[in-house]
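This is your field. Have a critical look at the following sequence-structure pair:

***
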Amino acid sequence: MAASPGTHSPYLTVYRPSPDASVRLVCLPHAGGAASFYGPVAHALAPRVEVVSVQYPGRHERHSHPLVPDIGTLADRIADALMSCTDRPYALFGHSMGAIVGFEVARRMEDAGRGPVELFASGSRAPSVERRGEVWHRAPDDDFVARVQSLGGAGSELLDDPDIRHMLLPALRNDYRAVEHYAYRPQPPLACPVTAFAGADDPRVTVAEVRSWAHHTKGAFTVEVHPGGHFFLADHREAVLNTVTGHLVKDPVLR
């Protein structure tokens, strides 16, 4: 594991440095997720694409760092960290909460004249789609954990262990609160293209809500629907990454 080139920011981690890669892919985790979620992506795409994994406060080596309570502030801090990593083209990839964070980061980077070449939004309704008063983060512990586990994320069974639950719940609740309190601010669409990915049977996000990402770009928009629920990415990672690399580099087929 290494800090991202050109920065010592705790927000950015590179699991497989690829100094000869022509492009970077900055990956943002889902609610409760960590940079390590994208470790396999880094290994799959190296050396053609250098993957920069974002580590939110409150998890793993940042367990003692203060949590960031809202999406806007989190996007501010990630965008600040990325400013020193724009020596080559980069794209943003976010799953679920990470897609919304990625959108807000893209806004900030475009405003600064350092926008991404593309935003990949996975398993997330578009920013402008109303969140229908969701209040998962207020539920009692057992109910909250059951709801999170119903989405089927890898490792969610660890929440059955009382000690691990005690360690993980603060960051998890914080992330859900941040998403559920997110308020979209109307602004001009992004200049960069947007590609969105959806799970056909996602119980939290409908395919129609994913298609609404089309309203948030002046560039090209495409959408892919894969079998599976909210974490369809786990079972269809290769297909998703083939699309990503197909947009970013030549010879996209993973080996």
